[in-house]
Amino acid sequence: MTAPTPLGPVLMAASAHGLAGLWFVGQRHMPDSTGWPTDAQHPVLQQTQRELEAYFLGQRTAFEVPLDLSHGTEFQQEVWQALLRIAPGDTSHYGALATQLGKPKASRAVGAAVGRNPISILVPCHRVVGASGQLTGYAGGLDRKLALLQLESAV
Prior knowledge:
This protein is an alpha+beta fold. Helices cover 33% and strands 12% of the residues. It has helices at 43-56, 74-84, 94-100, 107-115, 142-151; strands spanning 2-3, 10-15, 18-24, 92-93, 128-129. The strands form 2 sheets. It has a 3-stranded antiparallel beta sheet, with helices on one face. A hairpin with a 2-residue loop joins β2 (10-15) and β3 (18-24). α3 packs across α4.
């Protein structure tokens, strides 16, 4: 299912366990979601669309839709779970996440896992910045990353 957002359309996909993918159309690192439900009537996708609309209107900072983050390696899943702990309005950096995961020398691996995050916005990879606070890569583009951080008052 494709849904509009103020930052451009997003493609959403669900699994039997929850939202499995949310990507900006045309972004880097879009996995093959063949076979995942993308029907606009799917309850998880409808809930996601409602929650995204409220988020972009500034009426929601947390999401309640169930997430399915099982489509990655064990390490990627650990990183994605760590992203969920970064509060709206806050940022973190790759080294801090690596340390938090008990792997302080794995900041590059953390960066790779962050870049492969399958659920943009809801799993807030946009809240990860460089060690000195500079904006770093974002699969959806740095302009979108900046806009999301500004929406959340993180910059």
